[in-house]
Hints:
Number of helices: 3
Helix content: under 10%
Number of strands: 40
Radius of gyration: 26 Å
Strand content: over 45%
Amino acid sequence: MSRHDSVRIVLLASAALLAATPAFAQDSEAAGQTTEIAQQQQDGEIIVTARRRAESLIDVPIAVTAISGAQLNAQGALDITDIAQSAPNVSLEVSRGTNNTLSAFIRGVGQQDPVAGFEAGVGLYLDDVYLNRPQAAVLDIYDVERIEVLRGPQGTLYGRNTIGGAVKYVTKRIGTDPTLQLRGSYGSYNQADLVVSGSAPIGDTGLKIGAAGARLSRGGFGTNLTTGQDNYNKDLWAARGTVEYEPSTSAFFRVSGDYTHDKSNSRGGHRLIPGIVSGTPVLVDKFDSQGGLVTPRQDVKAWGVTGLAELRPADWLTFRSITAYRKDDSATPIDFDALPAVQVDVPAFYNNKQFSQEAQLLVDTGGLSGLLGVYYLDAKARTVFDVRLPGGVTALTFGDVNTDTVAVFGDFTYDLTPMFSISAGGRYTWDQRQSRVLRQTYLGGGSPYFGGTGVLALTTSDFRGSADFKKFTPRASISFKPSRDHTLYASWSKGFKGGGFDPRGQTSACKTPSGAACTPAQIYDFMSFDPENVTSYELGYKAALFDRRLTFALAAFHADYTDVQVPGSIGTTINGQQTFIGITTNAGKARMRGVEFEGNLIAARDLGARGGTLNLNWSVGYLDARYLRFIDSRGIDVANRRRIQNTPDWTASGTIGYSVPVGNDGQVAASFTASYRSASQQFELRTPMLDQPGFTLFDANVNWDIDKRFSIGVHGRNLFDKRYIVSGYNFLAQNPDTGDFLRTPAGAYMPTLGTEGVLTGYYGNPRQVFVTGTVKF
């Protein structure tokens, strides 16, 4: 299907949905009430919109973790990765050389190698707009209404495929009264943050405007000993602006824009082994580095504009349109080897842009509710980088991936009786991928594209390919609600993620078993990878007991995963020359099964003082994720020697909190949190020293709401200063079965890129303590 056909289908479908909408009913509710609303307490119920409509969390037959913006502020949350500490079987981590490239996994489904052009296994949504790339995806916490984490396939509810789950970042809606708020923080490593937000209605016109700006800065956790720059610092400006218009109770329009400019230094990795040739020792401080690559200067800019329109012709019917354009550009120098000399130096540019259009028809008659939607995405991703090796050899890569997607989806729930409900939905997806991968070798210095003086010696790839993928993925569930405070459900769903082409592949690396050059058909197969599919089963129980003092959610799941896409990069030798290539493997089969439990208990009321409340909150996730079939390059099934990457068997967190009223309008609240993650691997094959053993982080917070206008908080993160690896690079030769590093007869490591060896780790934040103050006008 061509791009013009895709656009035509979406526009016709959108027009058909709008044409099906009757004339406005004058007595309908305000349009804003049917859209994404804040998580709130109503008679003890938590209200979420996981199914695109406002529902009590207890009623939703989906495993959902919901965290309000107020909770995030009280916890001192800094960015979106912080929510993984309290959400079971969820991994959200900053990946490698920047502050804002995201690696996300839910229930073992995700993408460890954050390369633009791949579809992520976890869908990240900013105000219902799918973000089609991992760059600039570590969203900072400011002006946020809530974050919801949905686990399991969600393709019948959301515009883009979400085969592993979805993370929804929802910004604040504009209220009816003028507001102005200033929030500032200062703490360890000269952390200095300021967020200013405000909004106001324009008379009685139905028009409202709002804006928020953030200046987030911090010194480095360490130092680059070669360049003198701070390492792991933060230097970011961000802003959001919104205009809302509600001309009547039956219509609502919103235009919002956001902009982020991150000028932080590139993150330098920590070498885990001494230099093989130079003998350069391992640095003592894990946040120190000594890479010499400084060009291009790290610079990340991301922006987007979203238009939302809602029309309510009747109180049971809503038409919604979401139109969005997003763009981000990253310039980053990544010194893989973290040494002053050129060993494996990678200057890179990442450029992404996307246009999406979604139309929804939402129905809620009381007994029947659901949505019907169509979705279109036109996304372009370009990856350009040098791989500079010793001796003046440089491999330049241009990888362009264009994605054209159309989907029709729907999900409806029917109440058979007040106790029994059934839900059914489906999605049909058309994906088209077009790719060009150009690889060239330069001698005598870096490529001219990055200001080098090298001379073109050889073009090793000039690949062009296109592919079409289509799939129907259904979903069904049944719910039993014996009372208002109890819900049991069983669900079955399928998920699908289209195939594509590795933007870092090299055609000359394709060889037949006899060592001869590949045919064009064999090259196409070598550069491409197949779609992946998952079938998921889930049983759940949600309840509120003892006058809603105890609430909990329990879910057990089993997922069969086929043709698992495993993107990776390796160092290899072709025609006697070391080079870097990307290889994406389709592992045959995997199985994920596990249990998740989340609970909240009001343990005591009027404890210590009138109104004093002791609260306990906890979550536990167990995940048995394993490959059942994984054929390696030798043609051997190595499933029992591979693990699902970035996926611990156990995740758990527990928080004890106490709050007590102070004065007329004040309150003091204190909390202490411990979060645990068991051992996990960075890659499918065990990597000694880079894989992270199990660890526990401890946080504490004290917040004093002096009155309705003033508040102050003290926050401690990672109180015991634990060092833990979140990502890394490995270019050392390994035993393909055990993962043990291969050694020379003299006992030295054997590098696959460069001569000094690359085994580099990147670490999570150390202990941070900071004070936050808020003033509301």
